[in-house]
Amino acid sequence: MRFSQLYAPTLKEAPADADLISIKLLVRGGFVRKVAAGIYSFLPLGFRVLKKIEDIVRQEMNAIGSQEILMPIIQPAELWHETGRWDDYGPEMMRMQDRHERFFTLGPTHEEIITHLLRNELNSYKQLPVSLYQIAMKYRDEIRPRFGLMRSREFLMKDAYSFHGSWSSLDETYKQFYGAYSKILQRIGLEFLVVEADSGAIGGNESHEFNVLADYGESTLLYCDCGYAASDEKAEYLLQEESQEGAVADLKIVPTPNSRTVDEVSAFLEVTSRDIVKSLIYKGRKGYYMALIRGNEELNESKLKAALEDQTLVMATPQEVLDLLGVPIGFVGPIGLPKEVTIIADHTIKGLKNAVCGALKEGYHYSGVLPGRDFKIDSWHDLKMVTEGDPCPKCGAPMKSAKGIEVGHIFKLGTKYSEKMNGYVTDEKGNSIHYIMGCYGWGVSRTISAIVEQLHDENGIIWPLAVAPFDIIVTAVNIKDPIVSEKSIQLYDILSEAGFEVLLDDREISPGMKFKDADLIGIPVRITLGKKLAQGIVEVKPRTEKKPLEVSIVDGFDTLLEEIKKELSNYRPVSKMEAE
Amino acid sequence: MRFSQLYAPTLKEAPADADLISIKLLVRGGFVRKVAAGIYSFLPLGFRVLKKIEDIVRQEMNAIGSQEILMPIIQPAELWHETGRWDDYGPEMMRMQDRHERFFTLGPTHEEIITHLLRNELNSYKQLPVSLYQIAMKYRDEIRPRFGLMRSREFLMKDAYSFHGSWSSLDETYKQFYGAYSKILQRIGLEFLVVEADSGAIGGNESHEFNVLADYGESTLLYCDCGYAASDEKAEYLLQEESQEGAVADLKIVPTPNSRTVDEVSAFLEVTSRDIVKSLIYKGRKGYYMALIRGNEELNESKLKAALEDQTLVMATPQEVLDLLGVPIGFVGPIGLPKEVTIIADHTIKGLKNAVCGALKEGYHYSGVLPGRDFKIDSWHDLKMVTEGDPCPKCGAPMKSAKGIEVGHIFKLGTKYSEKMNGYVTDEKGNSIHYIMGCYGWGVSRTISAIVEQLHDENGIIWPLAVAPFDIIVTAVNIKDPIVSEKSIQLYDILSEAGFEVLLDDREISPGMKFKDADLIGIPVRITLGKKLAQGIVEVKPRTEKKPLEVSIVDGFDTLLEEIKKELSNYRPVSKMEAE
C-alpha cells in the first residue's frame, strides 16, 4: 500500500483527554479516533491490527475445536430476568426500549443468550461437550470511560461458552482454553501473567485472568516464586492467627471528639491502627451488613461480595448509615448494633484484644474491646486486600506484586445458568441433569492497548511482527528523484511478491516527518532509500534498533531480501520491564 | 469437520412464524435461530456462509482500493441533529440513552459518523479521493420484522463511503463500486438485475440497486429489453399526453350518497375510473399537501417524497383530514381547497376533462371538472406508480416486471452531508469547497436469504460452491461398519488435504436421515459410502442431480478425486427461473 493513499492522519500532539501512553500513541499514529466518551472508530491502520489479533484468536479457538457463531448484540430483557441479572448488573448495563416499548440490553456478555439458544436443542449427554464462540461488539456503560480502548463502552470481545455432562469434561476444556489463551499471548509476543481471579458478576467456581504486564496496568497482581499468582481482588495469604490470650482490659466508653478516621482515632487514643476495629456498613439485596477488619488493613469488596453471594453489594452512603444507626459513619461499631444488621468479620479480627471501635454514639469510641465477649460475629471470612509482602498462601514467602492489563478471563460456571434457565440433558442413566458450563472471554480491542502499553518507546509504538499493520515500511526519502522513485517501487513489488505486507512511503513531505511517522506507527522494519542510493546503498533499520544497517543493491535485491528476512525472523521487541 | 461434533441441530418442521421458504430452510437446516422478532443468532453452519459472503465482499472492496475501518454501532445523537436526520428518520431508528441520559442511536447507517470522522482531518484535494468501508451490525426497528434475515432488526452490512474533490472523481469511484457489486454477485453465482433506484432517506442525486431475482422478492423491478431497469419506487415511463381539446361540460355538483372510493363513485356516476381525480392528503414537515392522480393509477409515495424533498411525508389520517377540511376522506377534492394546502398533481391529470372529483361536502362530488379552469395546481410531477406494460421511458416498448431482493445499493450523495456538517477541502486554486461523497451499502446477512430464495428445491437449500458451508459431505451410511468407518475417515483426510472443506457425516442415525440432512443443508457434492463399498464402489452425487454416479476405489482414490474435482469445477446451481 502507498502511504499517499492510506487514510492515516498522524498528529504531532495527542488530544488533551488522552490519559495513557497507549491511547496517545494510537490517536497520534492515526490508528483510532474518539467519537464520544469511550466510543472509538478504528481507522485503516487500527483495523489492520485489530483484524490480526482477531485472526490469531480465531485460529486458536478453532484449534481447540470451538465453533464460531454469531449472537445478537441486542438481547431481550426477559432472558436476563430469568437469571436475575437484569437487576444485578446495575447501571453498567446499557438498556433500551424498542418501538413497542419492549426492553433490551446491549449485551455486556452472552451467558443468557447462549443458554437459551441451546436449552431447547441439547438433549443428550451424547451431544456433549459443545464449545461455541463468537467475536462481536460488547457494551459496558462505564461511569467514567477512560484509558482509551482499555475501558471503553463499546469494545470487541471474543466470548466462548462450553457445555458439559461432567465436571471432568469441563476441566479438560478449561485446560484447553487456558492453553489456547497462553498461546495467543505467546504468538503476539507479550510478557504476561496468569492469575487466579474473582469471578464477579459472571459467577462460577473457579476463574483465571490473563494479564499483559505493563507499568500502568489497571490490575494489581500478587505472585510468588513458588508459582502462586492471583489478582488482588482474589489473592489469599497465609493467615498467622494471633492468640487472644493474656491480660484483657474492661470495656470502656471514651470520648473521641472529632476523631472519626482510623488515623485520627489512633492518634487521639495513642493506639496503633492495628488495634482498631474498622467497621464498614454495606447495603445488599437482603439488607445491611457491617464488615469488620483491622484498622491497618484494607477491605476487599470482591471478597465481601463473594462471601455474601451478593454482587449488588455497595457501601452504604453516610446518610443511609445515619438513618440506620442514628450516628455518623466515624463512630460506628459492632457493640450494641441492631440485630437486623449482620456482622461479618475478617479473620484478622480474631486475634484482637484491648481493641478500639466506634461506640454508636457521636463523639465516642469504646476501648478495651474483646471480640466475642463484647459483640457477636455472624460469620468469619477472609476479607483482606492482600498486598505486596504478605505471605504467600501456598509457601508463606513474601509475595511480589505487578501491574497488568487483563485481556483474557476464563470461568468454570458450573450449573449457575443451566439451573436458572432450565437447561437439561439426559445422562448415561437416562436422568435429567443440568449441563455444566464454562465461559471464556478475550478482549480483542483491549489487546491493542495492552500491546502498546507494554511495547513502545519515546518515539512511538513498537508492534510485534504478528500484529503489526505492515511488516515493512519502504521510505522513499525524495520520491521526486526518479531513481529513488523507480527503485522504491521496484523494491515494493519484490517485497510484496515475497509475501510481505509493505507500506511504501511515497508522500511528498520532509524525510524527518517520514522517519518520525515510521517510528510513531511502529512498523518492524524500515528500509530507507535516500542519498546513498546513488552509490547503490539502502538502509535497513529494525524499529527496535537505533542504527541502520547499510546494504548494497548494486548486484540486485537478493542480499537485501536475505537481510530483511533475517531481521524479521529474529524480530522480537521486548518490554522495558523485561529489558531492565 | 465431523457432523457428530458440529453444532447443527436440524429440524423436521419449520417454526410456525417462518414466513418465507428461505427462513424455513435456514432454521430447519440449523443455520440460524430466532432470539426475538427480527433478531437472530447464526449457528456454525450459518456463520460459515456469512463469513464466506463477507470475505467475497471484502476482497472486492479491497480490489477497488477501498480501505477497511470499523466505526461504532452506538452513535451520539448530536451528529444526527446536525443533518436533521434525528427527526427525519422516524421510529425505525433505534434510540437509547446512556447512564448520563445522553441520547444515542444504534446506527442504521453511518453517513454522519464518517463525515464527522473526516471533517477535521481532510484538508486538501490532494488527499482525495478516499474510499473507506466497514462490515458491521446495523439496526432498523421494523414495525413488523419478517422474512427472516431479509427484514430483520439487527443485520450485518458492508457500508462504504467515498470522498471526492470533483464530480468526475465520484463518477469514477461509483463505476468501480458498480463493477465490484456485479462481481460479488457473479462470484456467488446469482441471477441479478441492477436498477435505477430512489435514494430515499439517504439522499443524493443518483442511485442504483442490486437485486437478486427471486419469486418472492420484496422489490418490484421494471425493465425493458432496451436496457432500462428501475425499481418500482423510481421507475419512469413514456408519458403520452392527452389533449384537453374538444367539448367541455360545465362544473356541476352531484349527490353521491355513500360513494367514497374510486370504484364506488365510478359505479354510481357511470364514469370510468380514468375520469376520476383521486385526491390524497399528505402531511409533511411544512404542512399539508393534496396529491392528485387519475383514479385508475396508483400514487408512488417515493416519487411524492422526492418531488417535495420531504422524507417525513405520511398520508394524513382520516381524523386529520376531517379536522383540516371538515369533510370525510371519501369526498375530498381540489376545488375550493383552503390555500394552506398545496396541490401537487401527477402528469396524468393534465389530459383530463369532464372529470369527477370530491366536492369537499359530505355526500357530493363534482362532475364536468376541468383542471386549470376549476382549480389551480401548484406543481406538476411524475407521481405515478409504473407497472408492467407501461411504456419504457427510453424506447416506449411495454416494460416487463420481476421480483427481486435488494442486496446492494449505491448512492451519489453529492454534498448533502459535507454541506450540513461543514466538511471542506481546499481545491487546486486554494478555495474551500465541500467535498463530494458517495455511499455504497451491501446487505451481508440479507444476501444469505437472497441466495436461498433463489437457489433451493423441495428438499432444501442448494448453495453455490463459493458460499457453501462445506464443499463436500462424506456420508458414512453405517459408521459402525469398520470398513465404512476406515474408508470414510481415509477419504475425509485425503479430501481435506486436497484443500476441500469436508463434512464427515459420522452420526449414528439412519441413512435416510443423513441423506435428508445433506439435501436440506445443501452441500454441493455428497459422497456416499454404503453397501456397495464391499465391492469398492462409492457414490458421488452433486446436490443438483437426482442420480448418483458410481466410482470405484478399488485401485485407490485417484479416480474419485478427479471426478470430484470435475463435478465441483462444473458446479453451478441455477434458479428455477433461469431453468424454466
Automatic annotation (TrEMBL), chains A, B:
The UniProt entry, under InterPro entries, shows: aa-tRNA-synt_IIb (IPR002314), aa-tRNA-synth_II (IPR006195), aa-tRNA-synth_II/BPL/LPL (IPR045864), Anticodon-bd (IPR004154), Anticodon-bd_dom_sf (IPR036621), Pro-tRNA-ligase_IIa (IPR002316), Pro-tRNA-synth_IIa_bac-type (IPR004500), Pro-tRNA-Synthase_IIa_type1 (IPR023717)
Q: Does the keyword ATP-binding apply?
A: yes
Comment on protein domains: Consists of three domains: the N-terminal catalytic domain, the editing domain and the C-terminal anticodon-binding domain.
Protein species of origin: Mesotoga prima MesG1.Ag.4.2
BP-aspect Gene Ontology terms: prolyl-tRNA aminoacylation
Q: Give the subcellular location.
A: Cytoplasm
Entry GO MF terms = aminoacyl-tRNA deacylase activity; ATP binding; proline-tRNA ligase activity
Q: Briefly state the protein's biological role.
A: Catalyzes the attachment of proline to tRNA(Pro) in a two-step reaction: proline is first activated by ATP to form Pro-AMP and then transferred to the acceptor end of tRNA(Pro). As ProRS can inadvertently accommodate and process non-cognate amino acids such as alanine and cysteine, to avoid such errors it has two additional distinct editing activities against alanine. One activity is designated as 'pretransfer' editing and involves the tRNA(Pro)-independent hydrolysis of activated Ala-AMP.
Q: Per its record, how is this protein called by name?
A: Proline--tRNA ligase
State if DNA damage is listed as a keyword: no
Classification via Pfam families: HGTP_anticodon, tRNA-synt_2b, tRNA_edit
Query: What Gene Ontology terms describe where this protein resides (cellular component)?
Result: cytosol
Q: Which PANTHER family would you find in this protein's record?
A: MITOCHONDRIAL RIBOSOME PROTEIN L39/PROLYL-TRNA LIGASE FAMILY MEMBER (PTHR42753), PROLINE--TRNA LIGASE (PTHR42753:SF2)
Please state which protein family the record places this protein in.
Belongs to the class-II aminoacyl-tRNA synthetase family. ProS type 1 subfamily.
Residue spans making up a coiled coil are none
Aminoacyl-transfer RNA synthetases class-II family profile domain residues are 33-464
Q: Subunit info?
A: Homodimer.
The main location class comes to cytoplasm
SUPFAM superfamilies given for it?
Answer: Class II aaRS ABD-related, Class II aaRS and biotin synthetases, YbaK/ProRS associated domain
- Record-listed E.C. numbers: 6.1.1.15
Catalytic activity reported: tRNA(Pro) + L-proline + ATP = L-prolyl-tRNA(Pro) + AMP + diphosphate
Q: Which keywords label this protein?
A: Aminoacyl-tRNA synthetase, ATP-binding, Cytoplasm, Ligase, Nucleotide-binding, Protein biosynthesis
